[in-house]
Amino acid sequence: MGHRLRFGALVTSVAQARRAEELGYDLALVRDQPDGDAWTLLSWIAGHTERIGLATAVDAAGWEPAVLGRAAASLDLLSGGRLAVALTGDHVAEVTDIVRGVLDAGEPGPLRYLGERHRVPRAQRGPLPAHRVPVWLTGNDPEDLRRAGRVADGWMADLSRLGAGELATAYKILEDAAVEAGRDGAEIHRILIVGPGLGPDELLALGADTFLVEADDPAPLTSWERLREGSGPPVCRPSSVRAKRRPGIDYEAIPASLAETAVEPGDLDYARVRSTYLRGGSPGVVLRPRTTAEVVDALAFARAHPGVPFALRSAGHGISGRSTNDGGIVLSLAAMNDIEILDPSRRLVRVGPGARWMDVARALAPHGWALSSGDYGGVGVGGLATAGGIGWLAREHGLTIDHLHAVEMVLADGTVVRASSSPDENPDLFWAVRGAGANFGVVTSFEFEVYEVGDVGFAQLVVAADDPAEVLVKWGRAIEEAPRDVSGQLIMGAPRAGQPMVAQLLAVVDHDDPETIIERLQPIAAVAPLYQQQVLLTPYLSVISNAADGGYHQGAGEPVSRSGLIRHLTPEFALAATELLNSGAVHWFQIRTVGGAVADVPADATAYAHRDANFSVAVMGSSARRVDAAWDRLRPYFDGLYLSFETGPDRVGEAFPPATLERLRALKGRYDPDNLFRDNFNIKAATR
Amino acid sequence: MTDYGQDLLFGAFVTPTAAPVHQAVELAVAAEEAGLDLVTFQDHPYLPRFHDTWTLMSYAAARTSRIRLSGNVLSLPLRQPAVLARSHAALDRLTGGRIEMGLGAGAFWDGIEAMGARRLSAGQSVDALGEAIAVIRAVWDATATGPVAVRGTYYQVDGLKRGPAPAHDMSIWVGAYKPRMLRLIGRAADGVLPSLSYLEDGPSAYAGINEHIDAAARDAGRDPARIRRLLNINGTFSQFGRSFLNGPAEQWAEDLAGLTLEHGVSTFILATDDPTAIAEFAGDVAPAVRALVAAERSA
Ligand SMILES: Cc1cc2nc3c(=O)[nH]c(=O)nc-3n(C[C@H](O)[C@H](O)[C@H](O)COP(=O)(O)OP(=O)(O)OC[C@H]3O[C@@H](n4cnc5c(N)ncnc54)[C@H](O)[C@@H]3O)c2cc1C
């Protein structure tokens, strides 16, 4: 395994580090500071540079090793994954283990380490750094070299302190020790501090992959630069990482365009991408395209693995959409999250599938615009805008897909197409995308026509629900009678011993006049005695900005969710719903409002066809058997379901009315005959 | 009434959260832009949801140019005094004198122990802090002859080279509530840094804090007026005055000016991660407190 050649500069100031960065060096190594603190200077340099790699030698004696692990994670995060650490001092193998143990935040459980010198009873791991921080060791004695061979990611030495023949001997000891420890000797980086005057050939003859130049000031790289070319792959996975690969996936065949960003089970980033909001997963590889062309490459790779599970992911909030898997391929579009205003006069915007709806709201708010999506800002554009989008302004403005103007898609065979209602832009595909998009391809960008939304009234009420059926019926009536500028939802949980039964009633009133807002809310607030109320006049942005920034999904298990669409909340339905709540089988019962503008769109205009419902009902529980036993009693009242809230298999026939399904099956046969796209309400192609 | 006549400083107390990665840095920048004097970060090295505070401070220092920075407060049991001294001095030199040292004897000993450090009793931790301050001052005293030699119970430093000295006369501010620690501050530190939310009797508890510090300072021949009185505060900006630090900016100003004039509190550090609150604190509250205090002091 060859490493890519890298050039670094030894620096003692931020000015030198910046100069090295300008000159194209890969790395700045802060030398030991006789009169200061190398870690502090390195952190300071991190804040003053953008790109250059950062390294320093740390004398472990100055640190509690577990704190050093935390510090390394922090500096790596703050610098955007630019850190390497050379550890020195006594008991350095123990310190290495502890530092790595803290950095390995994806490992389960706390770090427990009982060494001869250092004991860490139970340190929590993390934060997860931005990349796998390499730990280098130093020392030229055989014992030092053997240690480095056993545990280090790299061995660093100063050429001026080694005799001519010693280097080869050192490499030999290093490699033998590595092999003995079950590693690949070639995976250990060799980092040499060299004087400035060496020519390219002399440099190559040293057999190292990283050269750190000792000079008063970094000099131009000139004659060295070309050595980098063809010197090795940018990503070089050590044997410990490759050991975690899954069968059936040809890792070496990952397209070059995706190799650098792909994540394998042994990679540090795996913890960030393996699971979704609601599901735990262990995919064999996660491909992370940044462009449409890379999506094309990714689909070719997926096609070449017909027997391997394949999942498509935008922001990972799928419920019906199983956007992770076990041992399969995941195509993650998270990086394709641009939001761009195309035409301000028409309020036309282009949004990447990986954007989250709160990002969209944030980009639109300065213009006084919004686009109703759902109720949660963390949900992704890709999953929601291919299925429907029942949001805070649904009754007034319809579904999210009702404002979709055009999409760019990559089809199963790798063709890139544009779809819109225009006759020469695949109108039938555009029809299918709006409600069943996940079956037809990867949408790589969405064009929406958004609308003006100012401040809105946002009400959060808690009412008594001693008689849940009565609350349901009255709330349903109040909503149906309300003007369209009112949308909202009702949430109830299973009854709990010793606690009064309550219902949460949430509503958005698209109006900026407080009196109108109160007037609109009165009938809703009147359905039952109020326990709590909060009404805010607030930007739409703040209503939807309800997800955290910066974390990653750590879902576990498999959700059980059921969905039904219903026209009216009749007393009979309400009684059945009360029984369902009393059964204890569901812990979450939620009704969102549809109707209004949603119903203005003809049923055959989009693949989302159940237009005449006024309410979308969804429940969540943990046992499919128990949930279904209770849910089956509600089914007679429903007319169809919203697939985004349904995890049950085989309910395609309820998601789409017969005529819609027939058309979808025909189109599936045309666009995806081999059923590449199958992770979300899979439609079987019509047999021809 | 003990107003020590100290100049007033206003700061922010920012959560060093690791996610989003740069949130704390952005808040430091916001605090600087808003015109605050100081931005400070808590330090809980046993919690992986936070950045390493020292690394964060060094990085945030690089992203700002005027505001002063300090830990609030750094956990001594997980950081070595000589390293604290050197790193603070180094960063102070890099920033042109913008760093102060906030130190704490350690809280949450379960977490400290879990990371591998030794658990100390409350009394032991005060003694350890006293020794640490001696080490730190000795390292900073670059012009003294001979190497650093502190042979304590908790820290033995022998033969350590002195220096570097910080770029400015760096203060050591100590998080403290109890008499023993307060007396140590009177003897050896440059400021006391409690949090309002931990003062059991509310702001008036500051009177007791001052008594202990002042007595110990006088015993040690130090001028109590040179020991800074800081306070971490939290509150809510609202339209109508409801309670202490819950009301409009003018009311905040009166509440805080009262603390200065009555108890000599001269540094107010607002615990918040909300840039709007930082802007309001810096833009509306700070100038009003300064005006109220100046008027009263010159009266
Ligand atoms: C907490 C929460 C609240 C929700 N609230 C609402 C709500 O109020 N209203 C509402 O309508 N929905 C709501 N949903 C459902 C949500 O809209 C869907 O789960 C949606 O699929 C999530 O989109 P995502 O991109 O985050 O999901 P992902 O998990 O990334 O994707 C889900 C599925 O969508 C498909 N898909 C994703 N990206 C693309 C693409 N670019 N091209 C084609 N297909 C793609 C794939 O089949 C994938 O499996 C909610 C979900 C959650 C978890």
Automatic annotation (TrEMBL), chain B:
Entry-linked Pfam families: Bac_luciferase
This protein's UniProt keywords: Oxidoreductase
Transmembrane residue ranges: none
Protein source organism: Actinoplanes utahensis
GO function terms (MF aspect): oxidoreductase activity, acting on paired donors, with incorporation or reduction of molecular oxygen
Domain Luciferase-like: 17-232
Protein name as catalogued: 5,10-methylene tetrahydromethanopterin reductase
PANTHER family xrefs: 5,10-METHYLENETETRAHYDROMETHANOPTERIN REDUCTASE (PTHR43244:SF1), PTHR43244
